[in-house]
């Protein structure tokens, strides 16, 4: 079943298209969307349509930063009903936790995790999609950056920004937007921040408004609550590269016992093993499309102890070795398309 997200995920899409001289109506038709459908930010649309639309628009406009351009104008207010709750949290850490708790009301395709790493904290973020999601990932991490800046102030900058996809031909806009080192071909998507920054008091926090917003959000109909299947998928997305995507660790993260998690998944017609395999299939294809990721590195990013174990699994899933799949697929990233047509 396709994940449905708020049409607000495409906020500033038309403005960016206009700035780049693009008429996006053909791309909208290709993915089954329309301008009128996107007028209501609370309208639910398939995330796969959003991801594909951003890739098509980036290619048609010949702009590798399409998603990042959309992120430039984003505000916490674009998060909808939870924006007041998030913006008035006492610290950035609290704001991020509120974002994680209520992400099903913001964008249910996003997986976000706060990972403590000594003096630094890694904010891992992934867009759950079975297709190339370069533009969607850059948009999502750009919006995460805007959230952090809203709480910390316009002068705040992370220690680094990381993307699993290759660098564009020109990284000037990335460096200007994030104001810190930007690492491409990384093992994860997200921000690396100084741990102390997450606990700095938010000068704009208003506890009374936060309490009011909390009561209001909790009174909303529960139809939008995420399913356990989706929550397990998100956890696997975030934990694969670190080697923690085991049933025990995922269950612990979700506050469940392994037996309870497996039982509830079974009631939904799913199993942990099947979900793990599905996520690996999606990410394996995405990683293989980046020629700078070696097979050794990809096997590690997918949680395998050796390249041979990864290769055996890949052959069983796709009927051919990963290197042959990569050769037959050919370069399909935006930079190669731009270079070929330039």
Parts with pLDDT < 50 across at least 5 consecutive residues: 332-342
Quaternary structure annotation: single chain
Provide the domain count: 2
CATH class of the largest domain: Alpha Beta
The overall average pLDDT, rounded, is 90
How many β-strand stretches? 7
Question: Could you characterize the architecture of this molecule?
Answer:
The strands form 2 sheets. Strands 3-4-7-5-6 form a 5-stranded mixed sheet. Strands 1-2 form a two-stranded antiparallel ribbon. With 342 residues, the protein is of the alpha+beta class. Mean pLDDT is 90; it is low at 332-342. It has 17 helices and 7 strands. The protein has helices spanning 13-19, 25-30, 47-61, 66-72, 83-87, 92-101, 134-152, 172-178, 207-218, 228-239, 247-253, 258-267, 272-288, 295-301, 307-318, 322-329, 334-341; strands at 4-6, 44-46, 110-117, 120-127, 160-162, 182-183, 190-194.
List the helices and strands and how they pair.
Blueprint: E1 4-6, H1 13-19, H2 25-30, E2 44-46, H3 47-61, H4 66-72, H5 83-87, H6 92-101, E3 110-117, E4 120-127, H7 134-152, E5 160-162, H8 172-178, E6 182-183, E7 190-194, H9 207-218, H10 228-239, H11 247-253, H12 258-267, H13 272-288, H14 295-301, H15 307-318, H16 322-329, H17 334-341
Parallel strand pairs: 5-6
Antiparallel strand pairs: 1-2, 3-4, 4-7, 5-7
Helix pairs in contact: 4-7, 10-13, 14-15
């Amino acid at each position: 079943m396709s994940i449905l997200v708020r049409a607000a995920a495409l906020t500033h899409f038309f403005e960016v298209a206009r700035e780049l001289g693009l008429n996006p109506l053909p791309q909208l038709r290709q993915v089954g969307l329309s301008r009128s459908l996107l007028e209501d930010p609370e309208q639910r649309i398939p995330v796969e349509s959003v991801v594909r639309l951003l890739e098509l628009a980036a290619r048609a406009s010949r702009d590798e930063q399409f998603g990042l351009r959309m992120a430039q104008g984003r505000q916490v207010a674009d998060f909808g009903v939870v924006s007041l709750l998030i913006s008035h949290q006492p610290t950035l850490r609290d704001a991020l936790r509120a974002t994680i708790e209520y992400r099903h009301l913001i964008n249910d395709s996003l997986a976000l995790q706060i990972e403590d790493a000594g003096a630094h904290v890694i904010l891992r973020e992934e867009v759950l999609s079975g297709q190339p999601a370069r533009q969607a990932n850059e948009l999502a991490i750009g919006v995460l950056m805007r959230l952090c800046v809203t709480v910390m102030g316009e002068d705040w900058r992370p220690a680094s920004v990381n993307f699993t996809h290759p660098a564009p031909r020109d990284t000037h806009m990335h460096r200007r937007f994030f104001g810190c080192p930007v690492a491409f071909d990384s093992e994860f998507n997200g921000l690396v921040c100084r741990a102390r920054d997450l606990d700095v008091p938010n000068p704009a926090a208003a506890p009374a408004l936060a309490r009011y917003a909390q009561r209001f959000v909790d009174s909303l109909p529960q139809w939008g609550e995420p399913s356990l299947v989706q929550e397990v998928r998100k956890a696997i997305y975030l934990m694969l590269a670190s080697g923690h995507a085991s049933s025990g660790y995922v269950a612990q993260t979700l506050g469940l016992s392994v037996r309870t998690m497996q039982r509830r998944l079974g009631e939904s017609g799913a199993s942990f093993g099947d979900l793990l395999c599905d996520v690996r299939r999606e990410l394996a294809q995405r990683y293989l499309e980046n020629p700078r990721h070696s097979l050794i590195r990809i096997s590690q990013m997918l949680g395998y102890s050796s390249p041979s174990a990864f290769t055996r699994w890949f052959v069983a899933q796709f009927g051919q070795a990963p290197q042959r799949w990569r050769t037959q697929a050919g370069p399909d990233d935006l930079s190669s398309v731009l270079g070929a047509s330039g």
